[in-house]
Design brief:
Blueprint: H1 2-7, E1 15-19, E2 26-29, E3 33-38, E4 41-46, E5 51-56, E6 66-72, E7 77-82, E8 85-90, E9 95-99, E10 106-111, E11 116-120, E12 123-127, E13 134-136, E14 144-147, E15 164-166, E16 172-181, E17 186-191, E18 195-200, E19 206-210, E20 220-224, E21 227-231, E22 235-239, E23 245-249, H2 265-273, E24 276-281, E25 287-291, E26 294-298, E27 304-309, E28 314-320, E29 323-328, E30 331-336, E31 339-343, E32 356-359, E33 365-369, E34 372-376, E35 382-385, E36 398-402, E37 405-410, E38 413-417, E39 424-427, E40 440-443, E41 448-452, E42 455-459, H3 461-464
InterPro entries: Pept_S26A_signal_pept_1_CS (IPR019758), Quino_amine_DH_bsu (IPR011044), WD40/YVTN_repeat-like_dom_sf (IPR015943)
Protein name: WD40 repeat domain-containing protein
GO molecular function: serine-type endopeptidase activity
């Protein structure tokens, strides 16, 4: 019961979401923080160190895609407009309240020293200084506008010419939005499919690049050479132990990224032609690579050899004793040094595909299959598991194990299997999960990393579950 109680209340301190910065829709700031509105949330970035400290998402009650945000110095609050909803965020108590104005869609928000204005689908409105009341209004004499009527344009700053930034792979990204802090002599510029740049308006030089989160959809989270890698279609992002994010695009016409030497050119080329879905260290310094068209072995001498050459994806790899298990949509294979052996389970669920594999500390192995999970414990006993939220007509896509805890991605959210009782707790948006669709899971010593469409979320599971020590 304690396990259930610990997860029954959403604690923002246990969660940090990194949404994609490919499309920054609005930039605003206070004296202390930067606020970036992206489709899946509002990123709060501490200005001194340019560090992401909080992301407001659907788990905080925001409904609909984020359209824009605007800091209101009159009340030290942040207005957030989504598709059909308007909210006010108060940083002091870390609270969000929904407002119920006489309009549906907010096109722009105008800030003046004395009032806040909203350009909407029903016309122009002014908000009462304190109360959540709105009245029709005339055009203000002067306002700092956010949204469609944005007061700042990239063309207003000649030092931004030619109005794009070039990344490490010589790909260009158009600067689409800016916001200036005249007192601090800083210009914040959003670049398409890139992130945020900070310029010094006196010198015109770049002072910082703010980049985090995935670029596009993440299909698999891997750990390699002390980094976490987030692989998607033709794109990947890495996160090192110091919190630095790096990116590369493996599409046609791109160049290898500087600083990505940890990923060999052979791996980059393989991901270009066959999307990498999983990786696992093998014998003699080799690396096994699962792709959407089979299994490959990258030897220490950088030679690449196909082990399972099929027109089907290999979804997952797992070490089992001295061998490797490979899950595909046509079954499970045992990869030995000189052969591949098809494996079967007593209930014949493997015949419908094995989509992920996780092993717990006690030696039990869990196989994600169509409509449920197959278990093989440490003494060879087989069983089936049907976690809450699983769709019987769809495969379970994501598993991860930490100690003897099992994490399962389902259409209903994140299910956690408690080792003592075998019971389940489901974490959904009301308990902190920002998105329902989970594409991949990775459990580290302290955090559970959760990939969803356009976002990666870090869940401090050891603190949330009150687990002692390390795994």
């Amino acid at each position: 019961m304690l396990f259930l109680a610990l997860l029954s209340i959403y604690n923002p301190a246990h969660w940090l979401s990194f949404p994609s910065l490919d499309s920054i829709r609005c930039i605003s700031f206070s004296n202390r923080d930067l606020y970036l509105a992206v489709p899946d949330g509002v990123c709060i970035i501490e200005r001194r160190q340019l560090r992401l400290t909080r992301t407001l998402t659907a788990a905080d009650g925001l409904q609909g895609r984020i359209r824009l945000c605007a800091w209101n110095p009159l009340r030290s609050s942040l207005f957030i407009a989504t598709d059909g909803h308007l909210y006010e965020y108060l940083p002091g108590p870390d609270a969000i309240q929904e407002l119920f104005p006489p309009f549906t869609q907010v096109k722009s928000i105008g800030i003046t020293p004395a009032a806040v204005f909203f350009d909407t689908d029903k016309g122009l409105f002014q908000k009462h200084r304190v109360a959540p009341l709105f009245s029709e209004s005339r055009e203000p004499a002067a306002a700092d506008w956010f949204g469609e009527r944005d007061s700042s344009r990239p063309q207003d700053y000649i030092f931004l010419t030619p109005y794009f930034v070039t990344d490490d792979q010589l790909l260009t990204h158009r600067i689409i939005r800016v916001r200036a802090d005249t007192r601090a002599r800083r210009l914040f510029a959003a670049a398409e499919n890139y992130g945020l740049l900070v310029y010094n308006t006196s010198s015109g030089f770049t002072e910082a690049h703010v980049r985090f989160g995935p670029s596009g959809r993440v299909g698999r989270i891997l750990e390699h050479d002390g980094r976490l890698w987030f692989f998607g279609d033709n794109r990947a992002a890495s996160l090192d132990s110091a919190g630095n994010w790096n990116y590369f695009y493996s599409g046609s016409g791109s160049f290898p990224a500087a600083g990505i030497s940890l990923l060999l050119p052979e791996v980059i080329e393989l991901n270009r032609t066959r999307t990498i879905r999983a990786a696992l260290p093998a014998d003699s310094g080799a690396l096994l690579l699962a792709t959407d068209r089979g299994l490959y072995r990258l030897a220490a001498d950088r030679s690449l050899t196909p082990l399972l050459d099929i027109e089907r994806p290999v979804f997952t790899l797992c070490r089992f004793a001295d061998s490797i298990l490979a899950g595909t949509d046509e079954g499970l294979y045992l990869v030995t040094p000189d052969s591949l052996i098809r494996l079967y389970d007593p209930s014949a669920r493997f015949d419908f595909g094995v989509y992920d594999i996780a092993r717990t500390r006690s030696g039990s192995t869990f196989f994600a299959t169509l409509g449920g999970i197959v278990i093989r414990d440490s003494v060879g006993t087989w069983d089936r598991l049907l976690p809450p939220g699983v769709d019987l007509s769809r495969p379970v896509q994501a598993l991860a194990a930490a100690g003897d805890h099992l994490f399962i991605g389902t259409p209903g959210g994140l299910s956690i299997r408690e080792p003592g009782t075998g019971g389940f707790t489901v974490i959904d948006r009301s308990r902190g999960l920002p998105a329902a669709e989970i594409t991949s899971l990775f459990a580290g010593p302290e955090y559970l990393w959760i990939a969803s469409a356009g976002m990666v979320t870090r869940f401090r599971y050891r603190a949330a579950l009150n687990l002692p020590g390390r795994n």
